[in-house]
Amino acid sequence: ELRPGNAVRLLKDAGENYPAWLDAIRQAEATIHFETFIIADDATGRAFAEALMERAAAGVEVRFVYDWLGSTARAFPSFFARMRKAGVSVRVFSPLRLSSPLWIRRDHRKLLTVDGAVGFVSGLCVSDDWPGNPERGIQPWRDTGVEIRGPAVADLEASFAEIWALAGPRLPVSAPSRSDPATGAPAGSVPVR
């Protein structure tokens, strides 16, 4: 369904996406919902983990879900255990199970919402690979992201809630209503589907 009243900003590559994501995370007051295919235990992944842990310590409800196949070789269990110990609710999507060795369900979505007010959707995972390395002649991974403010953020929250429920118990509260003044107030003039 087309949702009017949104503000939308295009973000190019990790150089624009990562700072916007981290800024939103650091300003969170109530909730952070973060979903990614890959997070690596490298400088980029640790910067995001630190920001999430800091907000959890400040009382923000931080929920993070990652894909087992995408992240398993990039971050060891201790990386996620540290986040959990700091208060971040961490779930893994579709882990390997001996009872179902032919697992084919993956979560490739990359989504972040903060306080139900701002959301980000992109193709960027969280790793040093995406910004590239100019010193070694490695260009940034070309990817566009979208920042959304307004009623369409409720749709992002609902999408996160679906994946969260597939990886464990449902969210303790329902996703925000599009008619809720906190999430339904016009933030701009862009219709979003």
How much strand content do the residues show?
15-25%
Give the N-terminus to C-terminus distance in angstroms. Answer: 6 Å
Overall strand count:
8
Q: Helix and strand string, N-terminal first?
A: EHEHEHHEEEEHHE
Let me know the average pLDDT: 88
Overall geometry comes to globular
Give the C-alpha Rg: 16 Å
* Spans of at least 5 consecutive residues with low confidence: none
Number of helical regions: 6
Largest sheet, strands/sense/barrel: 8 strands, mixed
Output the structural class: alpha+beta
Strand order of the largest sheet: 4-3-2-5-6-7-1-8
Helix content: 25-40%
Please characterize this protein's 3D structure:
The protein is an alpha+beta fold. Helices cover 31% and strands 24% of the residues. It has six helices and eight strands, in the order βαβαβααββββααβ. An eight-stranded mixed sheet has the order 4-3-2-5-6-7-1-8, sandwiched between helices. The longest helix has 15 residues. The chain is globular.
Write the layout of secondary structure elements.
Blueprint: E1 3-12, H1 13-26, E2 31-36, H2 43-57, E3 61-67, H3 68-71, H4 77-85, E4 89-93, E5 110-114, E6 118-122, E7 144-149, H5 153-166, H6 181-184, E8 190-192
Short description:
The chain is an alpha+beta fold and 193 residues long.
